[in-house]
Amino acid sequence: METLPRHRFAPDQVWAWNGSHWVAVDRSQAPERWAAEVYRGPYHSTVTQIKDGLPSSSLSCSSVVADMLDSLMAEPGHQVLELGTGTGWNAALLALRVGPGRVTSAEVDPQLAAEARGRLEAAGLDVAVHVGDGALGWAPGAPYDRLIATYAVETVPWEWVRQTRPGGRIVTPWGRLGHIALTVADDGRSASGWVQGLGTFMPSRGVDQGLELNQVRRRGGGRTEGLFPRSATALHDANLLFALRVLVPDIRVSTAGGAVAWLHDGHSSWASLTDHEDGRTTFVQGGPLRLLDELARGWAEWERAGQPSLFDFGMTRTESDQWIWSDHDGERRRWEPLRAPRRPACGSAA
User: Fold this and answer.
1) Catalytic site residue 192?
2) Which residues on neighbouring strands pair with residue 23, listed in sequence order?
3) Are 219 and 268 in contact (CB under 8 A)?
4) In degrees, to the nearest 5, what angle opens at C-alpha 177 toward C-alphas 156 and 184?
């Protein structure tokens, strides 16, 4: 990252959230503010494209980029497929690691692909950037030793497994709240592996991202208030958050404040929890679904399972099925949502 700093791969226009909507920050007009957005910190991403009012591409935060590349275990000489070129920074770091002519990257957006190709060439890096749907991988270059996606999927495309050699490794964000590393079985008929970390990722292009919290709050009626038996602060626990993502996948939790937590379903229901100095936790919620009832059910199920950690969870993908499992205290169990999730529209690569 010191050799290839992120500002070399940032576009001249990035986007900042002003509290109500995204606003453009132009490098030529506001260079200091532009630099501040590019280098907000190791745990902050930089939005580089907006489509239909929502972020559609970004420079991922440095900590997540490093974590995912570490999980990939790429070595010099490996053939690597990256899906979701974006700005080209991740592909550049990969090329520096594995060597010239060994990284192939696919990007669904022709403009992003062209711009990334130009940045990679300017950096003197030999990376093949193609325009294509990441869900299909890039068959002409297969088989690959390593495959990495820079956008989240609910179901790992089987083409990714098919195009990765036996013993090869696939790293991808799953469900917008973590990333996994799968190893392809010796017979090529499955891939399995562990959750590697927690983070929020953009979904594949074309997937319905749902509404923002402030939009949901404007839609959600039927407001109720009361006391909640659990602490809002406890929702900072990454282990609990991942278990809730598996058990109640429609609920999105944000904890941008020590004693307050917000929940919403991206559609029409929302809730908030607030801890008070006297030990009480109060709630407010609105909309047709009682999200706090679902939250409590998921929370209790995680506790009954022995409170497995984030790193106790894993995934197995076969050609016909995919499932999440945990291996905790010597017991492996398969996890299913407590209620069938609302299915988003299908999409292609980010």
Assistant:
1) no
2) 16
3) yes
4) 30
Specify the length of the chain in residues. Answer: 350
34-57 b/e (C-beta count within 10 Å ≥ 16 → b): beebbbeeeeebbbbbbeeeebbb
Q: Which of 200, 199, 179, 188 is nearest to 315 (CA)?
A: 179
With beta carbons less than 8 A apart as the criterion, state whether 286 and 269 touch. yes
pLDDT digits (tens, 9 = 90+) for 170-229: 999 998 788 999 999 999 999 999 999 988 887 777 676 778 888 888 876 789 999 999
Please pick, among 45, 57, 58, 60, the residue that the annotation labels catalytic. 60
pLDDT tens for residues 26-53? 999 999 999 999 999 999 999 999 988 8
For 158, half-sphere exposure in the C-beta direction (CA atoms, 13 angstrom radius) is 8
Helices H / strands E in the chain, number of each: 8, 19
Distances from the Cα of 94 to the Cαs of 68, 77, 79, 105, in angstroms? 11, 11, 10, 10
**What is the rounded distance in angstroms from the CA atom of residue 164 to the CA atom of residue 142?**
7
Model pTM score: 0.91
| Span between the terminal Cα atoms of the chain, in Å | 23
